[in-house]
Write a structure and sequence with these properties.
Elements: E1 12-17, H1 24-40, E2 48-54, E3 58-61, E4 67-70, E5 72-73, E6 83-86, H2 93-96, H3 99-108, E7 114-117, H4 122-127, E8 135-136, H5 143-149, E9 154-155, E10 161-164, E11 167-170, H6 175-188, H7 190-199, H8 211-220, H9 228-237, H10 244-250, H11 255-266, H12 270-286, H13 293-299, H14 305-316, H15 320-336
Helix pairs in contact: 1-6, 1-7, 6-7, 8-12, 10-11, 12-14
């Protein structure tokens, strides 16, 4: 089995499996990462051979309507790839209803160095029995459903990607590129992976987790419910000094009823939701080079830098200082390239 210390006389076969209705970025995102690694590795022979498989060779339609061309059917693929990634999509029934495909995936175990999924492709790995008693992730919207449907899987709903032995899973859509970058780093080393990240204007290791993208989207799911007007107002007034009692009064509820309804409709306690909204806005402010932490904190409704720091650590697992430095370094590298 080849590792990054092996002589690379044979390109590693990286196989993406698509299907009618797959998310195009689940496929093209990782492929671009591996293709960039081939371009930047400066090896005599390309380190990767990229293959796109589907149920049948030829054009298949992604969820966006864009057609992609499969090199072959997975039925006709000979041998064992080095790495296989299963794409996801809004409707993954073409994968889950294809027992022959699931059996083929199960047979790859032990013969293929890495088996992985992007986004909801994790459901296919689980259906093939490959996630049993393993840690995994998927799109944050589907994490609870994956856990309920496959209780033996330890689902990490906030992870960008998870590696458990030879099984890899990533979060939603663009997180497949994060996973591919991690694989490039495993194979070719940090220097090549960093060069790929710079070329594609990506973080080598993205700070934070899926929660940094999901708070306002979660709120949008409450449209038509009791708290929809309040959440719309809160999206514009998060910077004010607000208490749960004030929010309850605005919703015409007692604080006790408000807390219960808020948790039921939004999935978070009111104070935690408000902290996440403020943190997300602070993230955007810190991406404006030159703004001070104190200004960012007060602009977003925090009392000061210390409260901002605690919120960042709780929500993103990183301090605001470290986040700003990472963003500044990535931005400088991108401009330099």
């Amino acid at each position: 089995m080849k590792t990054k210390t092996d002589t690379n006389n044979t390109a590693r076969a990286i196989v993406l499996v698509g299907f009618d209705g797959a998310a195009a970025l689940d496929i093209t995102g990782p492929l671009e990462v591996f293709a960039a690694a081939c371009h930047l590795s400066h090896a005599d022979d390309p380190p990767y051979r990229l293959v796109l498989l589907a149920d049948q060779p030829g054009v298949f339609r992604t969820a966006s309507g864009v057609g992609l061309v499969a090199d072959s059917s997975w039925r006709d693929f000979r041998g064992y790839p080095d790495t296989i990634l299963i794409a996801g999509g809004p409707d993954i029934s073409p994968l889950l209803n294809n027992r022959e495909l699931l059996l083929w995936l199960a047979r790859l175990k032990g013969h293929t160095r890495r088996i992985g999924s992007v986004c909801t492709g994790a459901f296919a790995l689980a259906a093939a029995g490959l996630l049993e008693n393993r840690r995994a992730t998927t799109h944050w919207v589907e994490a609870e459903r994956l856990q309920q449907k496959h209780p033996s899987v330890a689902v990490s709903p906030d992870a960008i990607y998870v590696k458990d032995g030879d099984i890899y899973t990533s979060a939603g859509v663009t997180a497949g590129m994060d996973l591919a970058l991690a694989m490039v780093e495993e194979d070719l080393g940090r220097e090549v992976a960093l060069a790929v990240a710079r070329m594609l204007v990506l973080y080598l290791k993205r700070p934070g987790g899926q929660s940094q993208f999901s708070t306002v989207l979660q709120a949008q799911a409450t449209e038509g419910k009791r708290l929809a007007p309040l959440l719309a107002w809160l999206a514009e007034n998060y910077h004010q000094a607000l208490t749960v009692e004030q929010l309850a009064a605005r919703a015409a509820m007692t604080p006790r009823t408000f807390a219960r309804v808020f948790l039921a409709e939004v999935g978070l306690p009111p104070a935690q939701y408000l902290e996440r909204i403020r943190t997300e806005h602070a993230v955007r402010l810190l991406e404006t080079i030159g703004i001070s932490l104190d200004v960012a904190a007060r602009e977003c409704g925090f009392t000061g830098c210390e409260q901002l720091r605690r919120a960042f650590l709780r929500c993103l697992g990183i301090t605001p200082q470290d986040y700003r430095e990472r963003f500044r370094s990535a931005g400088t590298a991108a401009k330099g390239d």
